[in-house]
């Protein structure tokens, strides 16, 4: 599967911007359309100079077809229990749950969901419910799977050790001005939020920060680990993300690296909820000029590519 390009499903893209793409509204997952938490976005449309983008859009899945189980097997039964435990725990404050069903034998299933740190309870619950429903569709009869959405992910496996390999996504557009400066600001900010996330305030290992790149533009960054990781595991996992970022996303306007236990992302437009951002050094969003600049030049949706590399496996015991 190395290098495979995964198309977006549902005609959506991860950079869904309600404010710029009203014509595409019919392609949104129904979960968004009919849920009350959409109203904060409507509020943003009307009142906010800097719109925040949050969507339940499906990003991609990875489920090796070498690991399959047969329907009605005891593995299926265990998996069903795991998925139902993940669903029923999706309102927990930490936005995270891990569970094991089985006695350690062949039909044992390990499972995790992780919601993005700024998700409201509604967003998290809806995203996990969607993910659980999508498992048999995206990864039919697979013993190992990871499914990513913008605001949550689920992972399960027959193995307790996570052989997660990095998945990279990037914006096809490049930074054109003052590239060295941009890269320095990005490195600096990433290194800071990786530490903040690893230290894990508020029961989450999550940090965001936005910084000025110049008078007109800001850089928005995010780092997150599953909160069960130690400081060291989280830190090492996120540093691996940063290393991967230089492979996939150098000089890009946006990039992400996703492991099952940690992930980072940056964009030059806001994509997380400032209100719920936990990083202590997060500056308030500016009320004036930058928004105009950002909206005038909306970023294109990112290309998606998976980089599978044996040398960059992150091994974290369950
Ligand atoms: C699975 O079990 C159900 C109920 O026992 C049965 O109706 C169905 O045909 C079985 N499916 C397979 C693929 O064996
Ligand atoms: C959460 O999952 C655990 C298993 O990991 C299960 O025992 C528990 O009942 C679930 N909690 C809720 C509220 O369903
Ligand atoms: C998981 O399943 C695959 C495919 O059936 C198998 O090769 C592997 O040994 C299993 N891993 C564990 C820990 O059971
Ligand atoms: C790059 O941007 C910074 C911050 O706006 C500025 O101080 C610096 O002079 C710029 N460098 C160039 C070569 O434009």
TrEMBL record:
Its main location: secreted. It holds the Pfam family Stress-antifung. InterPro entries: CRR_secretory_protein, GNK2, GNK2_sf. It is found in: Secreted. The chain crosses the membrane at residues 37-60. The keyword Secreted applies. Residues 57-161, 163-271 form the Gnk2-homologous domain. Keywords: Membrane, Repeat, Secreted, Signal, Transmembrane, Transmembrane helix. GO terms for cellular component: extracellular region. It comes from the Eukaryota. It catalyses: L-seryl-[protein] + ATP = O-phospho-L-seryl-[protein] + ADP + H(+); L-threonyl-[protein] + ATP = O-phospho-L-threonyl-[protein] + ADP + H(+). Gene3D superfamilies: Gnk2 domain, C-X8-C-X2-C motif. The keyword Signal applies. Belongs to the cysteine-rich repeat secretory protein family. This is Gnk2-homologous domain-containing protein. It comes from Nepenthes gracilis.
């Amino acid at each position: 599967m190395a290098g495979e390009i995964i198309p977006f499903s549902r005609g959506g893209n991860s950079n869904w911007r309600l404010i710029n793409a009203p014509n595409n509204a019919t392609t949104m997952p129904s979960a968004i359309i009919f849920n009350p938490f959409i109203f904060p976005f409507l509020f943003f449309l009307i009142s906010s100079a800097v719109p925040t983008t949050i969507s339940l859009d499906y990003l991609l899945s990875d489920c090796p077809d070498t690991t399959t189980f047969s329907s009605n097997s005891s593995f299926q039964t265990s998996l069903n229990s795991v998925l139902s435990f993940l669903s029923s725990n999706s309102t927990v404050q930490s936005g995270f749950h891990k569970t094991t069903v089985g006695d350690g034998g062949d039909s044992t299933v390990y499972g995790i969901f992780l919601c993005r740190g700024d998700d409201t309870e509604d967003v998290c619950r809806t995203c996990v419910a969607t993910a659980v429903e999508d498992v048999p569709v995206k990864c039919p009869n697979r013993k190992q799977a990871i499914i990513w959405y913008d605001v949550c992910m689920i992972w399960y496996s027959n193995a307790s050790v996570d052989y997660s390999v990095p998945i990279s996504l990037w914006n096809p557009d490049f930074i054109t001005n003052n590239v060295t400066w941009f890269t320095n600001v990005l490195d600096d900010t990433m290194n800071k939020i990786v530490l903040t996330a690893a230290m894990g305030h508020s029961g989450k290992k999550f940090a965001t920060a936005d910084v000025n790149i110049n008078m007109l533009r800001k850089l928005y960054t995010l780092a997150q680990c599953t909160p069960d990781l130690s400081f060291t595991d989280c830190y090492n996992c996120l540093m691996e993300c940063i290393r991967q970022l230089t492979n996939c996303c150098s000089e890009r306007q946006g990039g992400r690296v996703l492991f099952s236990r940690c992930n980072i992302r940056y964009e030059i437009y806001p994509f997380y909820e400032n209100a719920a951002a936990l990083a202590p050094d997060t500056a308030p969003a500016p009320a004036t000029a930058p928004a105009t600049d950002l909206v005038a030049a909306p970023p294109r949706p990112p290309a998606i590519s998976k980089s599978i590399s044996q040398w960059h496996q992150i091994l974290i015991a369950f």
